[in-house]
Amino acid sequence: MAPQTDPFGAGSEQAGNRLDPHLARYAERTRGMTASEIRSLFAVASRPEVVSLAGGMPNVAALSMDTVSSTVANMLATRGQVALQYGSGNGDQRLREQICEMVGLQGIAPHPDDVIVTVGSQMALDLVTRIFCDPGDVILAEAPSYVGALGVFRAYQVDVEHVAMDEHGLNPDALRERLKTLAAQGKTPKFLYTIPTFHNPAGLSQPQERRMEILQICQSAGVLIIEDDPYGLLGFDGVIPQAIRSHDEDGVIYLGSFSKTFAAGIRVGWAVAPHGVREKLTLAAEAAVLCPPAFSQLTISTYLDTQPWMDQIKIFREVYRERRDATLESLAQYMPPGTTWTHPTGGFYVWVSMPEGIDATAMLPRAVTARVAYVPGTAFYMDGQGHQSLRLSYSYPEPDRIREGVRRLGSVINEELKLMHTFGTVGAAKKTGTSKGSTPGPDVV
Amino acid sequence: MSNQSSLRVVVLAGGLSHERDVSVRSGRRIAEALRSRDVEVDERDMDIELLPWLVADPPACVFPMFHGAAGEDGAIRDVLDLLKLPYVGSDPEACRLTYDKPLAKTILARSGVSTPDMIVLPHEAFRELGAAAVLEAVENAFGFPLVIKPSKGGSALGVSIVHSAEELPTAMVTCFSYGDTALIERCISGTEVAVSVVDLGDGPVALPAVEIVPDGEFYNYNARYTAGLTEFFAPARLSQEVARSVADEAVKVHKTLGLSGFSRSDFIIDAAGIPQFIEANVAPGMTETSLLPQAVTAADLDLGEVCLALVHDAIEAHRQ
């Protein structure tokens, strides 16, 4: 066998090839969908040698597989034919009733007809954006904000205006200021997207009085609130904060999920929405998936009916509290001076701000070489902020692995500081650019 | 087509380098190509189970497709030699020479291959001599633009093109995030081509050069692995004379570095039509957007056929 084409100069008339015959067909919104160095580094983070503090994965090891197994068997024995069939576009009636009981813990009292079941709350967020936003519309989100939400907003070509946070979450003064600026530009945001409880990625919670203040600001400005609340039941002190939605049924769409209170793999979430919105969400959901998966819905419904699910949530809280403690203790032990971090009272995440000038994105290869992974802060902004910050997720690794991971991270930051001093780049972290290239995949949201 | 069902090959891909993701895709493509020729293929990652598994049930041949450290630095091939297993590609010594870009450039320059001027500086040199003074000396000697890259590694990870003194420190920090030694090279403008060389039993032969025209300033990671961001011409739009010259240079690189089986060398054809060697690869990418598979297609060959010939050649070489 030998090459049959003369390699010497036969290509002068040759047309170029971009290796994708569909290039001319793609929608404008796919423009930013490219490979990236950061995504490639996350492939290494999946290896067991690497302590991954990147992925916000629920600790399903704390869930009894015997319980899940018997729940599924029970469900199939009693409602198997329903579980294996198409279902209603807005979700199973019994599950919607149970969701109403659950959200009652957060002070929300909806009718089951106000609930639409979705494929994770991610789908609810997608549907909400789909029905409200045209390309170029403006929405508001915390700075930083949930990377999965930013992915949705980007896909619908929405302009995200970030609103600053302080130690109590979204800053009302910054919100007023941003609304004023936008009004001066003749822009009205379609909605405010907020995670008031155990924020992803910041790990902060809004006190009740702040929630009321934010609600009043939005009511005055005529801005709808999208309240995303996947972690609301996971407070380490057992206190369940009251949702913003509990104070306003018409001005707030509430998103919830079973991913953190049962299992992420079951992919069931929900939206609680006002009547008119709910109808459109249902039609949009039917267009997207016909109906949410009956098998998953009935499994959860059976679980909620037959198992002490609140006891399981208490187990989850303890698992995450232990890991939060390990994270905070080791951060105090290993981080260099000038590093600060949040102190979450629930949820999965700590937000770390590094000494001035360190670029968390540029540092990631060094961290992966040292066998520790995190998500660079830029992933949580649409406007190029976040270079100096990173998110650590403590939800999944064992406490000893967390301590080792944070120890490695401390060494990496110290090495980076030495490098920056060598090159005089202290204080020179990038301040501009977009984050689309650094957006991690679904395993690190 | 003969039935190869009695032939079992293990494709090694993944690993712990920064190029793990690319390696996984390359390995999958090689495995599919071999399966298309009825070869029984197992795909394995690098882990503590690998060696006992290879010893317990030795395959007819191993096809290493690890990219980056432990894959292209010769380490895994040293271990395969210890296990007396045949494998496709270059031996450990050739890998070590090639994977170290400054070393490869030095050896090739001595053999008459043109390559851009360079300076090689470990991190410690900047720390001990003072970065500002060292960078000023580099700037005075080479001027701008400069290419800053890690001395080892691939996929353009950690690579920057620098146009001014202000951009140098950040480029150095980026480079040192991927390795401890920087290769600073004079930036050559011209036509960027990759020439793959295969030895299918009759000695190393150059496949048609593939010309690379990225949309952005250079052929970075995104441009390499996102279909559509780069335009390729295979064969490259070169005069017959230049095409022959760069093919000869690629074969010379292959022979001078002692490479076996297959390799890919990257060149810039400068304004005078001279191929300037940039780097060589002992485990070149085999993904859907990679260059060697495009060269195979341009040569009217089939990737499965080429891979199978490489396997047979490796087994035969091992017997001898």
TrEMBL record, chain A:
Domain Aminotransferase class I/classII large: from-to ranges: 68-409
CDD domains associated with the record: AAT_like
Gene3D superfamilies reported for this sequence: Aspartate Aminotransferase, domain 1, Type I PLP-dependent aspartate aminotransferase-like (Major domain)
Keyword Transferase found: yes
Cofactor field: pyridoxal 5'-phosphate
Keyword vocabulary terms for this entry: Aminotransferase, Pyridoxal phosphate, Transferase
Pfam entry (one): Aminotran_1_2
Gene Ontology molecular functions: pyridoxal phosphate binding; transaminase activity
Annotated GO biological process: alpha-amino acid metabolic process
InterPro entries: Aminotransferase_I/II_large, Class-I_PLP-dep_aminotransf, PyrdxlP-dep_Trfase, PyrdxlP-dep_Trfase_major, PyrdxlP-dep_Trfase_small
Subunit structure: Homodimer.
Family membership: Belongs to the class-I pyridoxal-phosphate-dependent aminotransferase family.
Protein name as catalogued: Unannotated protein
Species this protein is from: freshwater metagenome
Top-level taxonomy: unclassified sequences, metagenomes, ecological metagenomes
